[in-house]
Every structure is written in structure tokens, then in C-alpha cells.
């Protein structure tokens, strides 16, 4: 019999359920009915419906600030199919959710998976008239029972962490004359985060205050790299390094996404400026480069 896990005090909960329906409240009620001592942190429930990648990116951005405990992530377009429901043990947290890649980036930044199980034991599931609400019937009970001291291995059969679905995240191409990156998040203020950090600009000799040539779809223009939003002039389309350490396209106190028709997945090409170029606009481009995010530990690293 596996040893019982220490009792977590927090569940950090992310989903695409929104707040129009009862789904979030029902899941939280199920968790608390099993483990009333828990505190539940709502990371976000406004992930676009069925958008696993958006859920994975939101979770990985938040993960370093979440307390030790349980992370529950439910963006599950494959609900009711043979996709696995999983619980993954890392050094600091247990992550629960569908095996569709939503957990993979966060497992990776938490140091990799120590172990994983497929949640199948009927003793720890809710009975249901249909298979379309795994958040209530599978994942929420799993979180509650783990928080009550049930061992991970009691939830179901052990599975090889290497068999879990990896996360597919876009990576920038920084090898050519241009940096080819993409917008992978637009926040509620309309700031468009790119999948590059300032080191990619610094490698080309660029520093804060410099002009940068940017091509978005069929249009090219000049942006200034500024320290913060207020350093941009009124109506100036600018680039900042945001609070996550990534480059973002911004307008001060306005929506860069709305005014420049920026969308998640839009390719952005960046280079050092030749001389003078015209203003910037927008429209869609090539398939993004992607990489698999492994959720297993690197070879040779101890558990």
C-alpha cells in the first residue's frame, strides 16, 4: 500500500468553464465536501472554450506564484472519450487534469514528474448519468481525496510519465537575419505578448530606447523599445519587456491588439532597422514553429 501523501492546504483551479453556468461552483463544492479544510484559488475560469494551449500558457505563467499543494486544470475538449484523466506528482505539487497537454509545461517548470497515475478507481469518482462533466465527476473528487490524505497511487493505476501527452508550445526562430516569433497571449488590456525575451534583442545589439524594425503580416514599421508603458508617446506602438520577462507589443492606456488587429498566433518578424520604414498594420501568416515540452525529468537528474 502506497504511503499517504501530506495533506495539502490549497487547490489552485483553472478552467474554461466561465461564470455564466454553475460549473465552477459545483466543482468547488465537490472538492470542499470531501476536504472542507482546503482553500481554493481561482487562477482563471475565462480560458477560451476548448483552448488547451491557452490554458497551458495561463497555468505556466501563474505556476511560480501558486502555493504548494494541488493544481487542478480543466480544459477538456476530449471529455467523455478515451483520453486519460491523470494526476501527476512533482516535488512541490500534485497536478490533476486531462491528459491533453494542458499540464505539461507546468510540470516541466516544476522540475518534472516524479510519478503519475490514471484516475480510474471508482471508489474516488462520483457516479454520473453521463460522461460529459469530468470536472465534477473525476477531477474535483480526485483533488478533494488527495487533500484528505488519500495516496496518489490509490486513485488508479500507475503510468509512465514519459507516456503523457506533451504540451505543444511555439518557439521563435532566432537564427536568421530576422527573429521570427509569434503572439502567444493577448491580455485583457490588449497587450500582445511574444514568445521571445529581451535576450533575443540584446544578441542583436539592441537596448532599451532603440528603434526596432517589425513586420506584421504584409506591413513593416518601426517600434521603439521602451522601459514601461508610460514611456511610449500617445498613440505610439511600442515594445516592452513585461512582468513575465517576455517582449510585448503595447500602446499606453490603449489596446494594441484592437488598434493593430493583433491575434494570438500572428507571426511577428523583428530585425535591426536599416534606415526608415513606414507604419505597422496586420493579417495572418505561416504555421508557427512548435516544440514539445517534456514533463519527465532530464536524463541523469535524480528524483
UniProtKB/TrEMBL annotation:
List, alphabetically, the Pfam families matched. SAM_HAT_C, SAM_HAT_N
Domain (S-adenosyl-l-methionine hydroxide adenosyltransferase N-terminal) spans 11-156
By its UniProt entry, which InterPro entries does this protein fall under?
SAM_HAT_C (IPR046470), SAM_HAT_N (IPR046469), SAM_OH_AdoTrfase (IPR002747), SAM_OH_AdoTrfase_C_sf (IPR023227), SAM_OH_AdoTrfase_N_sf (IPR023228)
Q: Which UniProt keywords apply?
A: S-adenosyl-L-methionine
What transmembrane ranges does the database entry give? Answer: none
**Keyword Kinase listed:** no
Domain S-adenosyl-l-methionine hydroxide adenosyltransferase C-terminal stretches: 182-269
Similarity annotation: Belongs to the SAM hydrolase / SAM-dependent halogenase family.
This protein is called what?
Answer: Unannotated protein
The taxonomic lineage of its organism, from the top, reads: unclassified sequences, metagenomes, ecological metagenomes
Amino acid at each position: 500500500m502506497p504511503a499517504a501523501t501530506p495533506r495539502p492546504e490549497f487547490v489552485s483551479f483553472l478552467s474554461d468553464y466561465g461564470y455564466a453556468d454553475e460549473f465552477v461552483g459545483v466543482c468547488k463544492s465537490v472538492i470542499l465536501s470531501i476536504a472542507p479544510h482546503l482553500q481554493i484559488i481561482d487562477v482563471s475560469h475565462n480560458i477560451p472554450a476548448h483552448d488547451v494551449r491557452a490554458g497551458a500558457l495561463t497555468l505556466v505563467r501563474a505556476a511560480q506564484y501558486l502555493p504548494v499543494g494541488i493544481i487542478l486544470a480543466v480544459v477538456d475538449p476530449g471529455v467523455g472519450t478515451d483520453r486519460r484523466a491523470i494526476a501527476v506528482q512533482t516535488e512541490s505539487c500534485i497536478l490533476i487534469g486531462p491528459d491533453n497537454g494542458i499540464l505539461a509545461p507546468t510540470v516541466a517548470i516544476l522540475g518534472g514528474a516524479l510519478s503519475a497515475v490514471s484516475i480510474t478507481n471508482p471508489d474516488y469518482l462520483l457516479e454520473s448519468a453521463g460522461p460529459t462533466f469530468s470536472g465534477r465527476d473525476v477531477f474535483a473528487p480526485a483533488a478533494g481525496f488527495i487533500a484528505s490524505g488519500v495516496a496518489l497511487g490509490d486513485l488508479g493505476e500507475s503510468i509512465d510519465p514519459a507516456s503523457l501527452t506533451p504540451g505543444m508550445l511555439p518557439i521563435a526562430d532566432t537564427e536568421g537575419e530576422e527573429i521570427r516569433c509569434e503572439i502567444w497571449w493577448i491580455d485583457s488590456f490588449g497587450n500582445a505578448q511574444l514568445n521571445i525575451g529581451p535576450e533575443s534583442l540584446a544578441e542583436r545589439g539592441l537596448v532599451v530606447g532603440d528603434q526596432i524594425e517589425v513586420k506584421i503580416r504584409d506591413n513593416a514599421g518601426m517600434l521603439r523599445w521602451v522601459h514601461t508603458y508610460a514611456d511610449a508617446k500617445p498613440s505610439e506602438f511600442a515594445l516592452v519587456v513585461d512582468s513575465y520577462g517576455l517582449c510585448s507589443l503595447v500602446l499606453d492606456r490603449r489596446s494594441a491588439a484592437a488598434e493593430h488587429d493583433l491575434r494570438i498566433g500572428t507571426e511577428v518578424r523583428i530585425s535591426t532597422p536599416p534606415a526608415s520604414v513606414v507604419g505597422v498594420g496586420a493579417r495572418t501568416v505561416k504555421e508557427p514553429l512548435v516544440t514539445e515540452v517534456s514533463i519527465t525529468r532530464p536524463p541523469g537528474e535524480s528524483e
